Amino acid sequence: MKGFRLIWRKSVNMVMLTLTGVAAFAVVSVLFLILGYLVYYGGRSLNWNFFTQLPKPVGETGGGMANAIVGSAKLLFLAAVIGLPIGLLGGVYLAEFGGKTFGFVVRYTTDLLNGVPSIIMGIFAYSLVVVPMRHFSTLAGGVALGIMTIPISLRSTEEFLRAVPVSLREGAMALGSNRWKTIATVVLPAARGGIITGMLLALARVAGETAPLLFTAFGNQFWSPGWNQPISSLPVVIYTYAISPYDDWHRQAWAAGLVLLGLVFVTNIVVRTFLMRGTSYERS
Amino acid sequence: MAKRAPSSWSVRAYLRRLATGDVVAHMVTLIFAASIVLIATLLVFQLWNNSAASRQQFGWGFWTTQTWDPVFEHFGALPFIYGTLVTSVLALIIAVPLGLAAAIFLAELSPRVISDKVAFLIDLLAAVPSVIYGLLGIFVVVPLMRTTIGPALKDAFGFLPLFSGPNYGVGFLTAGIILSIMVVPFIISVSREILLTVPREQREAALALGATRWESTWKVVIPWARTGITGSIFLALARALGETMAVTMVIGNDPKIRDSLFAPGYTIAAVIANEFTEATGKLYLSALIELGLVLFLLTFILNGMARLLILATETDRGRAS
Amino acid sequence: MRIVKVLGMLAALLMFGTAATAADGQVLLNAAGATFPYPIYSKWFNDYHQMHSAVQINYQSIGSGGGIQQLKTGTVDFGASDMPLNDKLLGMFNQKILQFPTVLGAVVPTYNIPGVSAELKFTPQMLADIYLGKVTKWNDKEITSANPGVQLPGNDIVVIHRSDGSGTTFVWTDYLSKVSPAWKSQVGSNTSVNWPVGLGGKGNEGVAGLVKQTPNSVGYVELIYAIQSHMGYGLVENSAGKFIKASLASVTDAASGAAAKMQKDIRISITNAPGLQTYPICSFTYLLIPSKIADSTKRDVIKTFLRWMLTSGQDMVESLNYARLPKAVVAIEMKQLAQVQ
């Protein structure tokens, strides 16, 4: 009896442990499957036209996504300008000056913002920017994306500022520096790697967002000059082309998917490998 | 002699402090931090305000009405709440065992070096944009569902109402499967970190008592990390609820409540994405925004609970060790 | 010093972005609406830009419902809709809207049935019953009796409709309401209805895409979508009892009696039009232009474009299987053009 029970427990052990390994393997292989499909289907459709041409009228081949690529770049630029300073300075506040209650309030609302579904951000930016301006615009899209970068950049700024050893601060102050000089010239540079990591990861995250752009940046068949015209963007074009019936558009969607994913992955890999050593914290 | 006020109270002293820049720095960073609170408040205010027409018109009945009829302006949230919940629960049913198992493997069994590298890859999976999942959904998963998975499930379980009806390829099940892939990285990374913080003594104690590796994991480590893992599940659920693009590309966009998983459905996020730009009429638009409010509240509550649970694990850890 | 350099770079980038504002004389117009005419609109706006490089008309095909709504909120300069705006809708605008028909198109039942390459015949009753969910299999008696000699499988019909507010839906449901009392009472006609069955696709593009990807499906799309996606589309029985395939000739026929009626009111429904060779599911599609345009440059550009559209533009439509506007209708519109101020 005792012997049988032991054998049973040992087999359960073996089976379960193998299953967990299988699970981990399965999840990782999904990643490679995604990459594989994109490289295969997208790689075939990447050509010079894709990067340099504007979209052609329906049914004509040879069109490209030049304006969508530039559009995404402009939107990200705006998102960075709008959202990253708030994240950075907010993080500095929480780490260096923060009062207990207000600090708690700020952290709580930041987490709240982080959990807001991106489509709701789109609604928000629509009523905040598009309606008063009476215009779909790059600005509206940038605002929506910019707000989404705040939680990630704020949390990483705060975390990495706190991680700077007190001895560094004390050393600077012992040399006669005041508070803000210490922060600006000693603490921030020391935490520089982690902070930039957080910022780049935040940008990589919003680069792929589609929903908030649907009714803020809208879409544009042409180049979008300035900041208050509708603008095309990679994720929105991927969506539009993917649900269409045209094979040429499908090919372009795959190619665009490869470009988008490539940029997101390269950013993530470079940032996490070189700039940040330690646990991953970007959880949501 | 009369008592003099402390010199720090004088205007000159204040101006002197101002000149050092510290006060300014404090002010500036405070303003930026406060702007976040302002933005969040504005967001909630806008959602509440712009849904007023619909809230007044339909009241609580909004949550229980099944019709979504823009022509006669009868709007009800039930099909969308149903679709959102069904797809998210389905996603969790697949993702939780899968994710937990993978997290156990990474935290308990694999050598730290491999575990770190694999965790890195899982973080990459978490970074894949939603529209890419949608792209793969349309061209890979939907045909797979139609030709392979669907018929297999029908053969095995076709007698259940859950798997009845025609198999279109798109529908609740496909959306649930894709959502599960999207949320599994979150479950894995959070659970793995929580499992890694369980004190070694716990495992060693179990092993010393003769438990197998699995038994020590399942009966000692997991219960210890129970709260945090639940937190990770709530986080994943919140993420699944708000997913828009991947879902709208594979769910079939039909606002109906049906018992079959093969049937097409609709979620809150998907209907907002599809119908927001064309909602003519104040009531239509405010009904959509009320749906957005519902979604916001759901994710807000879930995220709050998740944070509390994860926080509780961390403080537990602090107290115990 | 590094900070100064970084800030300098940022400033340069910012200036670059803003300096790429509209160059002098460049007129940027934004429009949105119907997907029904999107193939010809995208060609028109693209070619017009080639001819007048200073003019950029950015048209986003988001569905007629979207066009109407965005025109109402003023986020676009003009809209497009296959459904003409009735007085109730017009009343919702805070300014007068003029409606300019641009082309004639046909809505065809397109299908994807593996193994069936023949052209199917659809009776009005059949279409209504399929979309009502009463006919659920391809080998239903109703379908096989109209299509003797075609081997139809016993598979379930996957019904596909629009998920967004659509003028094409309006045309389709308008037709179904005319030919099926059951449809009229149960569902009615509008840009967005409470569909008894089916999957929803976004835009004509989405419906065509879904039909293309889904075996055993049927959907309704504008003719050119079915052609450009290489999908089969069926013949529909018209009011004279003949099964007609959508074509330039059969669509033009549908508008033959319309011009006279349009003198009084340019809004008209030509579904189920009389005529031996008429295709029964046709429609005009309209550009919705505000009657008062404050910006004089924009106004002039819009008027010039409309004039071009009514003359040279019409020469381009037939290559995409849209029918030209009847001459009488063009004359009516030229007169209406004067009302845009």
What does this structure look like?
- The complex is a heterotrimer of chains A (284), B (321) and C (341).
- With 284 residues, chain A is an all-alpha fold.
- Chain A has two domains: 2-45; 48-283, MetI-like (MetI-like fold, Orthogonal Bundle), CATH 1.10.3720.
- In chain A, 77% of the residues lie in helices and 0% in strands.
- Chain A has eleven helices and no strands.
- In chain A, helix 3 runs antiparallel to helix 8 (179-207).
- Chain B has two domains: 4-50; 59-320, MetI-like fold (Orthogonal Bundle).
- Chain B starts with 10 loop residues before the first helix and ends with a helix.
- The relative contact order of chain B is 0.14.
- Chain B is 74% helix and 1% strand.
- With 341 residues, chain C is an alpha/beta fold.
- In chain C, a hairpin with a 5-residue loop joins strand 10 and strand 11.
- Chains in contact: A-B, A-C, B-C.
- The interface between A and C is large, with 28 and 44 residues.
Quick summary of this structure?
Chain A is built from eleven helices and no strands. Chain A has 284 residues and is an all-alpha fold. With 321 residues, chain B is mainly alpha-helical.
